[in-house]
Amino acid sequence: MPAVNSFPLKLLGTRWARNSMPCEQIMQNDNLLLGAIEAGGTKFLCGIADRNGRIIRQQRIATMLPADTLGAASAFFEQAERDLGRLSAFSIGSFGPLSLNPVAQDYGSITSTPKAGWQDVDLLGHFARTIDAPMALDTDVNCAAVGEKLFGSGQGLDTFCYVTVGTGIGVGLLIDGAPHGGANHPEAGHIRLPRAAGDELFAGICPFHGDCLEGLACGPAMRARWGVPAEQLPPDHPGWEIEADYLAGLCATLTYIVRPDRIIIGGGVMESPSMYQRVRRALIGKLAGYDASMRALEMDDYIAAPTAGASAGLTGALALAYRTATRQWPMHWSVELPSSSNQSSLSGAALA
């Protein structure tokens, strides 16, 4: 089947459950029922949607220990299937690192995550015990990037990066319109960068690398360095320039290696006033006038905020479930973001 709107059909991290309905039957079924989870370090957002992207049911579950969190999520989907019918496809966009190589022994698992208690947790294996449907797994940032591609700041772009800066730093890549995985997913949050001026003594907090990008620039790193949460720092605090220097270093690296059409940066740390302008200014300095095509970049457009809504990760995970079921992206879904809320809600055929 051909691609839709130049959105390639490459399936990454897809696991087919036993006794699941053949894909050809699913594609002919007008009563698609999609299940998905945006699995984050602080919350699991579970959702059920129909073929048109209308969310029928959703639940927010605090991320606790695996047994409690996964048990609550399984109970949500088991009840949904009793009430609404069998799922046509199921997908997860999760924090990582993840094992996405289908030939790996630990395929479908969270691997060496710094989140206590979640190392070596088999996500797909857990849900395959109770959900008999085609399954897919990708990173939370790749799913958020899919949400931005369909409904946000990535619309109309073939290649872009989605960066989130919060409890960790994650980078999702869409290359030629599809999430990039290769042998496994990228871990750009753990690259090493030159130390920012005035920040030479901070050891960093990454339990694996110490002063990698995440160890220096995630939200908890800012709190460890300055003694207060980032949101409590005044706008003129020197910590913001240090933060911008590290994020600009990431953007320069992505620019040189990926040459994306845009870099979208979200997450709680980016909510600080003027943070985007700080990163843009610092990036101009780091590129240092190299390459005419880089000098021509319009920084206000190149470094952008996400616009697909607070639930872009769940949106992208549901879109991945749709693709898993039909081999197509849901280009007929549309988005209308409510003006009075920062959380997306779905109504009718509109993904909002």
Describe the model.
By secondary structure, the chain is α/β, with parallel strands linked by helices. 32% of the residues lie in helices and 19% in strands. It has helices spanning 23-27, 66-84, 123-128, 140-151, 213-217, 219-226, 238-258, 275-287, 292-295, 299-302, 312-326; strands spanning 14-15, 33-39, 43-50, 55-62, 89-94, 109-110, 121-122, 135-139, 160-165, 169-175, 178-179, 262-266, 303-304, 346-347, 350-351. The strands form 4 sheets. It has a 6-stranded mixed sheet with strand order 1-8-5-2-3-4, sandwiched between helices. Strand 3 and strand 4 form a beta hairpin. Helix 4 (140-151) packs across helix 11 (312-326) and helix 7 packs across helix 8. The longest helix has 21 residues, at 238-258. The protein starts with 13 loop residues before the first strand and ends with a strand. Residues 1-21 and 337-352 have low confidence and may be disordered.
Taken in chain order, the helices and strands follow as: EHEEEHEEEHEHEEEHHHEHHHEHEE
Q: What coarse outline follows from CA principal-axis ratios?
A: globular
- Proportion of residues in helical segments: 25-40%
Regions with pLDDT < 50 over 5+ consecutive residues? 1-21, 337-352
Strand line-up in the sheet with most strands = 1-8-5-2-3-4
Strands, count: 15
Q: Measured on Cα atoms, how large is the radius of gyration?
A: 20 Å
Tally the helices: what do you get?
11
What structural category arises from helix and sheet content? alpha/beta
Overall mean pLDDT score? 86
> What is the straight-line distance between the termini?
28 Å
> Strand content of the residues, in percent?
15-25%
Largest sheet: 6 strands, mixed
Give the oligomer, counting copies of the same chain as homo and different chains as hetero.
Answer: single chain
